[in-house]
Design goal:
Layout (H helix, E strand, L loop, with lengths): L2 H7 L40 H13 L4 E5 L2 H9 L7 E5 L4 H11 L5 E5 L5 H6 L4 E7 L11 H11 L2 E5 L4 H4 L9 E5 L13 E5 L2 H14 L5 H12 L1 H20 L4 E5 L9 H7 L6 E6 L4 H8 L6 E2 L9 E3 L11 H6 L7 E4 L5 H12 L1
Parallel strand pairs: 2-3, 2-4, 4-5, 5-6, 10-11
Antiparallel strand pairs: 1-7, 6-7, 8-9, 9-12, 11-12
Helix pairs in contact: 2-9, 3-4
This protein binds pyridoxal-5'-phosphate (PLP).
Length: about 375
């Protein structure tokens, strides 16, 4: 099936008791058993819920994977992946990535004896330099949040396989519409489904998708043992969001291109980060592994002043100043003080994330209105 058909039909089975075309919201914590151990495949809702089962089937299908697992947030999904590891194991992670992932790694898991090595994964040779027998997981984000760096997934998959390590790709920015990491050799795809999969800024949720049945068993065991599962109402909203992923993504990409090109010619804008530009260092790789370039853009003002940055951030009317991304409405964000505040300043600056960086999540409104809004704010 082609993506558009998959997104609409993935996980959808008319309800056997009523014929309802939409998966019902099974708002229940438990299931009545005929006799001890004799049940209909559902025992307790932390372990199984039919609305979640439908969503997990859909997640697998849309990422070209065999198995999907849904979590109560993106970080809960990341947390489950790291719990595959043992004290003494090493993780190689991208030096530029979502601040909450960095916080989870450094502030929660380091104290349990897992070692995280951060490197610039845009050059895969940097991974080869630090990989060792202890490497059990390679963690990538591509494009990265917020600097839109691109890493060659297929190349890193080869390095990870040779090292006997799992490769997990955070595919939140690209979405399955633009990029399918499992097809490129990754072992696990992770999503903050909160973003483009849900698409309407009304759900917090995470996802993992994989092909290997043994890996699925391990991750399912962690999911039910640690309990970070999403509720049935949220699973229903996610199923509904996924149905329109392709139409939304087409418009995000179209609007993203208009805004990125407009920003780039603006005299008050110094630098625009967007992988669709032919001179973006990761453009060739992005073109190879992505269908289009998305609606996430970061930029710096020519006059690198904190006051001016704050003024622009507070001046837009359509672009709402808020954390998060990937919804139908446009958002503007200040990574240094908002989404990436958990990364120490020296570390941020070393990785190229300046205090003056502004991040846009370009929504699917009319592009002319979005340009006019930015034009007024930048002045
Ligand atoms: C790239 C990326 N990964 C992971 C997360 C964490 O997801 P959640 O906020 O759903 O826990 C985010 C959240 O902003 C993100 O942008």
């Amino acid at each position: 099936m082609k993506p558009a058909t998959k997104y609409i039909h993935a996980g959808a089975h008319p309800d056997p008791s009523t014929g309802a075309i939409m998966t019902p919201i099974f708002q229940t914590s438990t299931y009545v058993q005929e006799a001890p151990g004799k049940n209909k495949g559902f025992e307790y809702a932390r372990s199984q819920n039919p609305t979640r089962t439908a969503l997990e089937e859909a997640l697998g299908i849309i990422e070209n994977g065999r198995f999907g697992l849904a979590f109560s947030s993106g970080v809960a999904a990341t947390d489950a992946v790291v719990k595959l590891l043992e004290p003494g194991d090493e993780v190689i992670a991208a030096s530029d990535m979502y601040g909450g992932t960095y916080r989870l790694f450094t502030k929660i898991f380091e104290k349990f004896g897992i070692r995280f090595i951060y490197t610039d994964t845009t050059d895969a040779n940097n991974i080869t330099k630090v990989v060792s027998k202890k490497t059990k997981l390679v963690w990538l984000e591509t494009p990265t949040n917020p600097l839109m760096n691109i890493t060659d997934i297929a190349r890193v998959a080869t390095i990870s396989k040779e090292a006997g390590a799992w490769l997990c790709v955070d595919n939140t920015f690209a979405t399955p519409y633009l990029q399918n990491p499992l097809d490129l050799g990754a072992d696990i795809v992770m999503h903050s489904s909160t973003k483009y999969l849900g698409g309407h800024s009304d759900v917090i949720q995470g996802a993992l998708v994989m092909n290997d049945a043994g890996l699925r068993e391990k991750l399912y065991f962690i999911q039910k043992s640690c309990g970070a599962v999403p509720g049935p109402m949220d699973c229903f909203l996610m199923l509904r969001g996924i149905k329109t992923l392709h139409v939304r993504m087409k418009q995000h990409c179209e609007n993203g291109k208009v805004i990125a090109e407009w920003l780039r010619q603006h005299p008050k804008v110094a630098k625009v980060y967007w992988p669709g530009f032919t001179d973006h260092p990761g453009h060739a790789t992005a073109k190879k592994q992505m269908k289009d370039f998305g609606g996430m853009i970061s930029f710096e003002l020519a006059n690198d002043s904190p006051d001016e940055t704050m003024r622009v951030l507070s001046s837009t009317k359509l672009f709402a100043l808020a954390e998060s991304l990937g919804g139908v409405e446009s958002l503007i964000n200040h990574p240094a003080s908002m989404t990436h505040a958990s990364i120490p300043k020296e570390e941020r600056i070393k990785n190229g994330l300046k205090d003056s960086l502004i991040r846009l999540s370009v929504g699917i409104e009319d592009a002319d209105d979005l340009v006019a809004d930015l034009d007024k704010a930048i002045g």
